[in-house]
Design a protein that fits this description.
There is one protein chain. This protein has 63 residues and is mainly α. It is built from 2 helices and no strands. It is elongated, with a radius of gyration of 15 Å. Pfam families: DUF6954 (PF22268). InterPro entries: DUF6954. Keywords: Membrane, Transmembrane, Transmembrane helix.
C-alpha cells in the first residue's frame, strides 16, 4: 500500500514538472538561451526526482 502511494506521489510530481517545466520550454517566447537553461533545469529536476524515487524504493525493498 505504501509503495503504491509513493509511486502515485511521484507520478503527480513528474506530471507537475512536465506541465510547468516543459510548457515554458516549448511555448515560451523567450530567447533560445533562456529555453536551453530552462530545459537544463527541468532535466536536473527530473534527475533528482528519479534518484530520490530509486533511493526510497531501494530503502523500502531492504525492509
Amino acid at each position: 500500500m505504501r509503495k503504491t502511494a509513493l509511486v502515485l506521489l511521484f507520478v503527480v510530481l513528474y506530471a507537475l514538472v512536465t506541465f510547468f517545466g516543459l510548457g515554458p520550454v516549448l511555448l515560451a517566447d523567450g530567447s533560445a538561451t533562456e529555453r536551453v537553461w530552462t530545459l537544463a533545469v527541468v532535466i536536473a529536476i527530473y534527475a533528482v526526482l528519479t534518484a530520490l524515487l530509486l533511493l526510497l524504493l531501494r530503502r523500502r525493498k531492504g525492509r
